[in-house]
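User: What would this chain look like folded?
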Amino acid sequence: MARAIVYTEFGSPDVLHLIEVPDPIALSGEAVVRIEAAGANPIDAKLRSAKRPSPPITEPRAVGFDGAGVIESLGDDVDGFAVGDRVAIRDTVGTYSSMLAVPVEKLVALPDAVTAAEGAGIGIPAGTAYQALRSLDVTAGDVLLVHGGSGSVGQAAVQFAVAWGATVIATASPARHEQLRELGAVPVAYGDGLLERVREAAPEGVTVALDCAGTDEAIEVSLELIADRDRIATIVRGPDAASFGVRAFSGGSPEPLTEQELAWRAEAMGATVELLATGDFVIELGPELPLTEAAQAHQLMESGDASGKIVLIP
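Assistant: Here's the prediction, encoded as structure tokens.
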């Protein structure tokens, strides 16, 4: 029997519990993956607590979208993968488990240079950052302001933008500034006086902004600096982004992603793996917890007491 984390009611992290489930069987176009690491993301906690609208629960609801592991079996009509291959998983419900059947289009091969924990940290953070920057048309010569640059999405956005030749200004607490410098950004502290500090850091102006923080300050400063509202986006303030006249990706946005945006999120997986394998991308890893401590992982995410990607190990 496989093991999986589920919940049967919305609520605090304590609603998460471990159950045994039948071993999955790979259908046509699928692979069964033995999960070695599952990435915990804020969206997991928002869905569990009903902070993000969800349909009523009628049966145990699986948790998690990102993971990494080893292929145990293959269904029919699968090309490009073999039993024993190391893979990362994106956008597949139920990665908080020991075994999972995954459509092969949701898999990317992991080279030996990339750990399972790193592979489990790619999907949502890198996919969100990559798609947002592509949608904002960030290119060489841009000056990008990333609010919340020390978070997992923020760090990914910094690294993609730097790799593409943009100059990056990133907000964070002073304790995280050296880390942002190492990623190639110019760090500035958030809080009173942010507008003046950004102007000092970017005397020739800012051309594009991505809000990964969700504060009024982040939106207001971006609006003050950038005239073209189409080049300001938030991944947090989806429900009220339109009231500011800015774009929203994720964060409860009422507008679904376009086919092109979904394609960019899929493209991000392979692009990030390649950069990781060559040492040109860093995923900050946080606590590794056993699968049985999924509730603690959610508590840590919601409290903000842990830095780096929280990973669950089955």
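The chain has a mean pLDDT of 96. If you want, I can go into more detail on any region.
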